[in-house]
Design goal:
The protein is an alpha+beta fold. The chain contains five helices and 15 strands.
């Protein structure tokens, strides 16, 4: 859920058979003329179902190059440290910034350190192609990640990423605000860029009108599915999921108070009503 705008902050929580993950996406942006630098804020938490161990990490800086002219491309750089709650074990991954003497700017090097401070695995790869771990004792190479050969044919999305946008009907979806019901997103996927942009503008215009109405009424915006808490692990103020979402998920029933964000006819009626009131 987008829990704030501005600044734009998205909170997320997901549960699978073997793990659960929660966190929020927030960036500070800097524009340097030829490129834009985006530094993430906040922490991602992962809990493994089998062991119950909890891990947490923060992201690295992303640079979008040639945003005004030329061929656009991205770089990631910085150190990503994954820590284990209640243990001194950690993993450190270094993504090198592109330079005259530093290769193609996609090199990844790192290590996994046990709770005694001993390096047990070395990590090496390229962030957009592969990542391997080398056992320091046996020399065995373990493949952690490898790019799918058909990756370029699917708009550079992973199989998991593609499935996130599988079409659903309003009846199948738990929420009327489910992003898979976004008409502009579906049009974009079908290649109709012009109409997708028009529909996107309508959606954003409705959001702006809703914000103005809240400001006029003096109403503070409150996220529907998340609430602010003090994280016990990182001591940060973070967004955590509310229990009623999981209750709704279990019952399969639409909850009250969820706006029809993709209903343009209703949006038009709201605009006309606002015009009469003003």
């Amino acid at each position: 859920e987008q829990v704030s705008h501005p600044p734009p902050i998205s909170a997320y929580s997901a549960t699978a058979e073997n793990f659960s993950v929660r966190g929020q996406s927030e960036f500070t942006n800097r524009f340097w003329g030829k490129y834009m630098e985006m530094t993430p804020k906040g922490t991602t938490h992962v809990t493994l179902a089998t062991s119950g161990k909890q891990y947490y990490y923060s992201g690295v800086t992303t640079i979008l190059n040639n945003i005004l002219m030329g061929t656009a491309y991205i770089e990631h750089h910085g150190e990503l440290v994954i820590k284990c709650v209640g243990s001194k074990a950690y993993a450190s991954v270094l993504l090198k910034k592109k330079g005259l003497l530093s290769g193609n700017g996609k090199e990844v090097k790192g290590k996994i350190v046990d709770e005694n401070g001993k390096t047990v695995y070395e990590l090496i790869g390229e962030w957009d192609k592969y990542l391997n771990a080398k056992d320091k004792n046996s020399g065995e190479i373990i493949e952690i990640f490898k790019k799918n050969p058909t990756f370029n044919d699917f708009y550079y999305l992973s199989a998991f990423g593609i499935h996130l946008n599988e079409p659903v009907t309003a009846e199948e979806s738990l929420l009327r605000s489910d992003s898979r019901l976004r008409p502009d997103q579906r049009l974009h996927e079908k290649g109709d860029m012009i109409e997708a942009a028009e529909v996107k503008n309508k959606l954003e215009d409705r959001q702006r009108k809703a914000k103005k109405l809240r400001e006029r009424e003096g109403t503070e915006y409150e996220p529907r599915w998340f609430t602010l808490i003090d994280d016990e692990i990182t001591q940060e103020e973070v967004y955590a999921p509310k229990e009623d979402f999981w209750q709704a998920l279990a019952s399969g029933v639409q909850l009250e108070g969820i706006p029809e964000v993709f209903n343009f006819e209703e949006a038009q009626n709201e605009a006309e009503e606002e015009s009469k009131q003003s």
